[in-house]
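User: Can you predict the 3D structure for this chain?
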Amino acid sequence: MIPIIRIDDLAYENMFCMFCGAQIFYEDTEEDSSPPCSHVLFIATDDGYEHQSALVADKLPPVYYEDYDEDADSFIERLNKISDFPGDSFIIEINEGPPVPGTIWVGFSALGV
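Assistant: Here is the predicted structure, written as structure tokens:
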């Protein structure tokens, strides 16, 4: 099981990698679209993936399914079924409320790629 850290109301703030200090999120996302550092395994939103590292790209499940099924596993449940993620991986789940509600998931590994 991949550990998850849940944070509320951070989706529109700057975020930095806790391993190398590189900036991952920007308040104005159009200002800088450079790829995240090698410690970021993936960045996903309710709309899909914004970044997938080569280490996990072929292992990641879909964020959502076109045909909604309330009995289907959640994105986090599907991620936890992946057995070969790096052992030190963890996910930060950021929930943002109005005016633009949504969820962002950022997967990290100290190993990098």
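The longest helix spans residues 75-80. The chain has one domain: 4-27+35-108.
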